Amino acid sequence: MATSGAEIFFRMGGSGPPLLLVHGFPQTHAMWHRIVPALARRFRLVLPDLRGYGLSSCPANDASNQPYSKRAMGKDLLEVMTALGHGRFAVAGHDRGGRVAYRMALDAPARIDGLAVLDIIPTLDMWRSLNAELAMKAYHWLFLAQPYPLAEMLIEQAPVAFLDYTLASWTKSRNLTAFDETALAEYRFHYATPEHVHATCNDYRAGFTADRLADEADCAAGKRISCPTLWISGEKGIPSEAKDRSDPWINWCRDVRGHFIDSGHFVAEENPEATLQLLVPFLEGTCAA
């Protein structure tokens, strides 16, 4: 589907109130495959590939990195949901998709009934929390955000090896056994092209610039997420080293609850049962019919 800034690929399925599921780096909408069957029995699902990922387009970037900001990515998805007739909806996002999801909740609160963020803390807090331990675990935040072409020049020598190492290093088991082989093949296929390597680096460049500045402005203005919010993080996930581990979203949300589960970063793939156990009742309590 053409939005005002990109061509967005998505899949739909299920029946019930609308639920948008937004993937993260370095994956595609396929990352939801283990929890989609249960969710599709309760919700009308929309599963997009973010701009720069999967089968969606890779728009040109600019010096501000706004084309890869979470605000721009969120605008894509708001336009998709509008075109599908969903004026209000719930959204769940993992990793970068969680950042797109909470940016939509801040920018378009009248559209979002409920927000679930999987294994992230807010972008501004992430940058402020980069102590030695978290910086080592989240090395990619610093590496991928470097000015063009450093990251691309290095990753493009062996993109699949970089992707496999990255995925494995963020799991609890520190290997690839958590991933379905078909899903893993899709991640490898889409990531291995130069345009996707470049686009995903631009995503992280925006994280350091446009996204951080947007969060700083909202923080200074005292703006908070108004819809009910759920966070789910892995005990061995990326936010586990953050300073505000006990409740990382309390300063950003008016109504928030959250849980750590037995998992690494990829909660929906590493521990789909525990993820569903938390996600389903929350969404059923917040989704508009």
Structure overview:
- By secondary structure, the chain is an alpha/beta fold.
- The chain has one domain: 3-Layer(aba) Sandwich (Rossmann fold).
- It is 43% helix and 14% strand.
- The protein has helices at 36-40, 70-83, 96-107, 123-128, 132-137, 139-144, 150-155, 159-169, 181-191, 194-208, 210-221, 267-270, 272-286, and strands spanning 10-14, 18-22, 44-48, 89-94, 112-118, 229-234, 256-261.
- A seven-stranded mixed beta sheet has the order 1-3-2-4-5-6-7, with helices on both faces.
- The longest helix is centred in the last third of the chain and has 15 residues, at 194-208.
- The radius of gyration is 17 Å and the shape is globular.
- The model has no long low-confidence stretch (mean pLDDT 96).
